[in-house]
């Protein structure tokens, strides 16, 4: 009996392997990822990193625009220190200059790249398309144009901006704006079948802000005062206040992803509405520093595997 069970198990896993590898071979369509998030959250920086990691770097044109793109205060401090050098006619931006430069996105950009699939998921490679949009208020009405056919949303959050206001009205808290945008895209009927991955970005700046004692998130989000760090989020080698702050921010996004809502569905007759069930979507959070190529490389290995798994699940294969 026992042997029979093992044989059966082996046969099943062989069948599964065959199914995955056939799917991988046949899946010639590109997997589409959409970057969303408020202005200055780091979307275009992720696109730049994909160019470094999966395409052959930058075009001369993007090097040229770097010279004009040093508007941001936090991200490009060392760039500003070198303003004289940058003004020189023969100035050649370094990769770091390009990653730290800032130019507000006002159009929709698409990049294509290929990613190797780990052997355990059938090997070979998959094509990815990644879309970048502008995150400022006026730009968001264009988002819907790219919602169709998207498999995964990468939602960027500038986690360090808990004490800043948005440029658009110089009043709304930046982190709150980000939470509100997440809430609306998470519940969007057009993205109901997408997987969501949240990048809690600018961890380098967040850490520095908190560890230096200059800023406390509790001054802007009073519920922080009673927030307790769970033991699984502790790390004896990391500053406790920083860990508490980043987990507090993460939990704000997780709480939204757990809200059970039924949205208004089809109108059956005036005043009579059929309620649509929310489909179960998955949401994963990562702490990231988008300007750090190595950090992005590691995080994306996870992201790609996650997306491959979501796609396999769609065809009825689940891998633990
Ligand atoms: N220090 C640091 N700077 C970052 C990080 N991520 C992005 N930046 C900087 O933040 C600025 C804004 O980043 P972008 O990638 O242009 O932001 P965006 O989301 O594309 O902004 P919009 O196009 O306006 O929607 C740039 O100067 C980046 O270099 C990070 O993790 N750490
Ligand atoms: Mg951008």
Automatic annotation (TrEMBL):
Report the leader peptide range: none
Q: Which residues form a coiled coil?
A: none
Which Pfam family, just one, is annotated for this protein? G-alpha
Listed A to Z, the keywords are:
GTP-binding, Magnesium, Metal-binding, Nucleotide-binding, Transducer
Q: List GO molecular-function terms, semicolon-separated.
A: G protein-coupled receptor binding; G-protein beta/gamma-subunit complex binding; GTP binding; GTPase activity; metal ion binding
Q: SMART domains this protein is in?
A: G_alpha
InterPro entries tied to this protein: Gprotein_alpha_su, GproteinA_insert, P-loop_NTPase
Q: What are its GO cellular component terms?
A: cytoplasm; heterotrimeric G-protein complex
Xref: Gene3D superfamilies: P-loop containing nucleotide triphosphate hydrolases
Sites binding GTP sit at 99-105, 132-136, 201-204, 290
Q: Name the domain of life this protein comes from.
A: Eukaryota
The UniProt annotation places Mg(2+) binding at: 105
What is one GO biological process annotated to this record?
adenylate cyclase-modulating G protein-coupled receptor signaling pathway
- What protein am I looking at? Guanine nucleotide-binding protein G(F) subunit alpha-like
